[in-house]
């Protein structure tokens, strides 16, 4: 019953705080037996009904605190229950490494799952004298933490709690997976004792296959318990992979063709100032999108921030910068329209207009990208744990892309509406008619490309919020492949020059 669980948790907490030292093996045996009762796999569902959501955290902290007071007369302690297993030993400074191996069942019908703690000889050399090492394994505590805290993660291994001297800064842990899967990646994590959550910053995933994960963790006062997580939102599909890379291939080829056409017909389509500025925007949109796609491919080939952290940071920075540049060059086109409609086009030198466009197109996204990196990376909150992209769960760094992009989409759509209303007043044959025609061409580009960009990244945001939806990922990949084509395709002047050039 939930009430009984809460009473036992409170009792265990009181015992751990009352006893200050000299816990012997008999006391540890009795304490573990009490904890084993509420760690039973049949009791997991009852934890959801406990009013105090922190009860499972209190239990973990209480057991760890009590075990840290254990004094070993013998060189080995082995206290084994079905749902809690404690191993302890005294290790001397010159030992040639040490390991603890646990093998426990998650429930009565499951196979045993193993977990191992390894201390390297190099780490043992850092300790000045003989010392105690204690490790406690829990097969069900991960599920209990999920149930009580309503975490959107799945613990996929034993929870291993360690009691070590402060001099030991690095330990290796090997977790056998409860759910064997080669499709879903695991993340090595440590339990943050103050914030009561799993924290990926405590560990690095060194190696992984479908059966087990090897972790290197940094135990300290904050992180004393470790495990592996399997995110339910992790989605890996061969179909999605093929669509993504084929789509990127189509996008890159289209962008290269677009830039090649611009080079070939540049002198023909840039005879007036407004045409020059318009095609300058088109060329830079294509160039920035090409660079963004290229860096996106680089990021996808990196195996995540754990093994290639610096490379992942660099790839994420450039993907962020160049995709933002695409949107800001679209904003530059919108500002160009407003300048042409609301002011007089020739009041400023062309060099000033070009400098202004480059400041908006490259300067603004560069400032945003640098600030995002500088604010979030020192705390290791720049990257997502499982991929080379901006973090969402911990620091919301992704907002540094989402907010500017969606704001630009709204501004551009408002601009298009204003231009449609304004240009209705320009009569055919008037002195302003030719410039209005040029502005309308820009307006067509924006009217088509802006909703496409907005729709594309709308689905991109949906893949973050609802990451297990294969449909959202496929739609995003397909739209991403089509982002460049409309900008050049709707430009009638560009098409006419190409026909003349080819004919």
UniProtKB/TrEMBL annotation:
One of its GO terms (biological process) is cell surface receptor signaling pathway. PROSITE patterns: G_PROTEIN_RECEP_F2_4 (PS50261), GAIN_B (PS50221). The chain crosses the membrane at residues 242-265, 277-302, 322-345, 352-375, 398-421, 442-465. Its main location: membrane. The keyword Transferase does not apply. It is found in: Membrane. Keywords: Disulfide bond, Glycoprotein, Membrane, Signal, Transmembrane, Transmembrane helix. Residues 92-236 form the GAIN-B domain. It is a multi-pass membrane protein. GO terms for molecular function: G protein-coupled receptor activity. Residues 240-483 form the G-protein coupled receptors family 2 profile domain. GO terms for cellular component: membrane. Orphan receptor. PANTHER family: ADHESION G-PROTEIN COUPLED RECEPTOR F2, IG-LIKE DOMAIN-CONTAINING PROTEIN. Belongs to the G-protein coupled receptor 2 family. Adhesion G-protein coupled receptor (ADGR) subfamily. This is Adhesion G-protein coupled receptor F2. It comes from Mus musculus (Mouse). The lineage of its organism: Eukaryota, Metazoa, Chordata, Craniata, Vertebrata. The gene is Adgrf2.
């Amino acid at each position: 019953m939930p009430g009984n669980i809460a009473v036992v948790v409170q009792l265990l907490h009181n015992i751990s705080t009352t006893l200050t030292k000299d816990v012997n093996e008999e006391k540890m045996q009795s304490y573990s037996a009490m904890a084993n009762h509420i760690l039973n796999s049949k009791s997991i569902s009852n934890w959801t009904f406990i009013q105090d959501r922190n009860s499972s955290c209190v239990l973990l902290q209480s057991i760890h605190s009590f075990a840290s007071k254990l004094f070993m007369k013998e060189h080995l302690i082995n206290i084994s229950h079905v749902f809690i297993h404690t191993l302890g030993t005294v290790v001397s400074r010159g030992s040639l490494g040490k390991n603890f191996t646990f093998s426990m069942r998650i429930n009565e019908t499951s196979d045993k799952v193993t977990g191992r703690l390894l201390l390297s000889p190099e780490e043992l050399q850092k300790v000045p004298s003989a010392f105690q090492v204690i490790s406690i394994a829990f097969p069900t505590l991960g599920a209990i933490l999920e149930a009580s805290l309503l975490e959107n993660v799945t613990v996929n291994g034993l929870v291993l709690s360690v009691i070590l001297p402060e001099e030991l800064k690095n330990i290796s842990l090997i977790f056998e997976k409860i759910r064997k899967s080669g499709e879903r990646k695991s993340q090595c994590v440590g339990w943050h004792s103050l914030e009561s959550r799993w924290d990926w910053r405590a560990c690095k995933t060194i190696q992984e296959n479908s059966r087990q994960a090897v972790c290197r963790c940094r135990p300290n006062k904050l992180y004393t318990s470790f495990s592996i997580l399997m995110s339910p939102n992790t989605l890996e599909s061969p179909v999605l992979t093929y669509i993504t890379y084929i789509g990127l291939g189509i996008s890159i080829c289209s962008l290269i063709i677009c830039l090649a056409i611009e080079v070939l017909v540049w002198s023909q389509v840039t005879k007036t100032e407004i045409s020059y500025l318009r095609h300058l925007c088109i060329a830079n949109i294509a160039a920035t999108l090409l660079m963004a796609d290229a860096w996106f491919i680089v990021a996808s080939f990196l195996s995540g921030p754990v093994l290639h952290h610096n490379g992942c940071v660099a790839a994420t920075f450039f993907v962020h910068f160049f995709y933002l540049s695409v949107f800001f060059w679209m904003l530059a086109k919108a500002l160009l329209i407003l300048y042409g409609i609301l002011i007089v086009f020739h009041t400023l030198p062309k060099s000033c207009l070009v400098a202004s466009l480059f400041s908006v197109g490259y300067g603004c996204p560069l400032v945003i990208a640098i600030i995002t990196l500088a604010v979030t990376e020192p705390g290791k909150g720049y990257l997502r744990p499982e991929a080379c992209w901006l973090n969402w769960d911990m620091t919301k760094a992704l907002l540094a892309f989402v907010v500017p992009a969606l704001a630009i989409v709204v501004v551009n759509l408002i601009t298009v509406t204003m231009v449609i209303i304004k240009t209705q007043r320009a009569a055919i044959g008037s002195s302003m008619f030719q410039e209005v025609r040029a502005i309308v061409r820009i307006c067509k580009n924006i009217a088509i490309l802006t909703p496409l960009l907005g729709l594309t990244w709308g689905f991109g945001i949906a893949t973050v919020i609802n990451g297990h939806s294969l449909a959202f990922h496929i739609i995003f990949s397909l739209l991403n492949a089509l982002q460049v084509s409309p900008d050049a395709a709707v430009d009638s002047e560009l098409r006419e020059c190409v026909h003349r050039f080819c004919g």
